[in-house]
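Please predict the structure of the following assembly.
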Amino acid sequence: MEHSTDALFGGYITVLVAIVMGAILPVTALLATRLLAPFSRERNKGATYECGMLPIRRASTSIGMRFYLYAILFIIFDVEALFVFPWVLTFADSPSAYWTMFAFISILGAGLAYAWKKGALQWR
Amino acid sequence: MRIPLPFGMLLDTTKDAPESVPSGTRQRIVRVPVPGLRLVGAVVALVVIALSVLIGVIVVGGALDGKWYDFRDLGNTMDGLRSVLPECVLALGETCVVTGSYVGYLASAVIGGTGVLSFVGLILVLLVWSERRLLARFQVRRGPNRVGPFGLLQPLADAIKMMQKETVIPRGADRFLYYLPPVIVFIPLMLLWGAVPWAPKMTYADINVGVLYLVAVTSLTTLAIFLAGWSSNNHYALLGAMRTVAMMVSYEIPISISLLTIVLFTGSLQLTEIVRWQAEHNAWFAFLLPLPLFTFFFSSTAELNRSPNDIAEAESEIVAGYYTEYSGMKMGLYLAGELGYATATSAFVSTLFLGGWTLFGLETWIPPYVILGLKISVVYFVLVWMRATLPRFRLDQLMAFAWKYLIPLSIASVMLVALEVTLFARWDVAAIVPLVLFAIVNYVFARIAMRRWATVLGYQPELQANHPVMTSGVGGLRAAQALRQAEGAR
């Protein structure tokens, strides 16, 4: 495999084409539904499903606090994982790289332990 | 009256039909052996054997080494196409605007994309069938066996039925956002399947940051799921979507950390490069890194919303989760998308951990994509097996499992593997010695660490396993049939 700019670019052209192609299958299926399926307007048919009762309030009101905590933790750890990826590719070059990353991950681990201790990982 | 049906079946209305059949009952389909069918089968088998011998002779003779017609690697055809194209296709004066290789890449992208698309379509049809059949076997049932031979046409019938169903849009829904998710769900599926290396040159999108691409693309579905849950204005749907997002986000981290350990060994993020490393060292990462394999596989089931982690659509709790308000083909698209992701994940498990298209040198004889296909089926079977066997986790258990169990363990394994790789780079012996040593060390580490950490977190093993009793007591399909026969005789 040649490593020219063309090859690099070619990899992403295919991704672009794949996005277009990926849209074809569901769009044709939905179009077929539009053509084949019966269609009628009836007011009560559009009622929100709620096990036979009338729904109270709109659904899109508020989101639980615990999801927020998990989101914060996720951001920290996902950025950490992305930060480790370049290290993984280059760490064999220098002997001190291992201990540097060890210190970094230890600090992060201490953060996780703190969150755990504080009960942020407890689903209430 | 005997009505012939395709695939050697006969609709026999005289035989076995009692006189007092009320009108409207289903007529019984009796398989009557058609004379000559056996002969046809023998001829087909002979032709297949002759073809395989011919292929073997051609391969041994070395007649198709990398030629455009070399069927063992369909990527050769694309190379042939590129070599035919001229240097410059469109020139404006002196400068070349469109180069031949650009056109070649675009053409191969379109051809390959069509290939991947039709492959995904075909595999979805096959999967719906195989999954239902397998689940039925696990539950001592027969599964779909009426439409077509062995019920193979059942998915097609389902698709046609779903297309004919009205898709109801709830009144309070955000219309635009409600339409988008079924389409968005499918696009990452295509992107994922495109990145799978099927053979040395047969990769649709051979991206040099393949592993990162994999992590990025799998998290796209989270977006579609939350859109679906939020836009349909339903409490169940929103709850399901929030649960799913929380779960997917949590399991994203063990996945990326366990992928790190592989990259540590290979030193490259490219998927083809990872496969090549495994082939070169004759070492599958499944043997070398058992703990990351477990982490990746289990976390993938969470990302896929499959049992044991299918709380997003826990029927007993929140109706159907994020697609509660979707009906007809839109719901069908979600279901199909989920199956597609399951196989795509099986493909990635086979590529990353089970050596991809290689099989210890056998890939020069057998087309590599056949080998990968077999591996994918094995991994997919394990997925179905898990779905049939394991009970569902509760949401808090699931989140705790990711954050308190998988993440600490996978971080520890990354540090251990990093140490090993440092040793591997500096130790001047044949590669097999350290690799075997690492495999043993990692296995022992996985065994002890998983057990100890679980004990620390409060896991208490059962004093007496009761599963063997169950399996021998029930005995599967054969036992059920024997029981039924005995009852019939009585």
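Residues 91 and 338 of chain B are 46 Å apart (CA to CA). Confidence is low (pLDDT under 50) at residues 468-472 of chain B.
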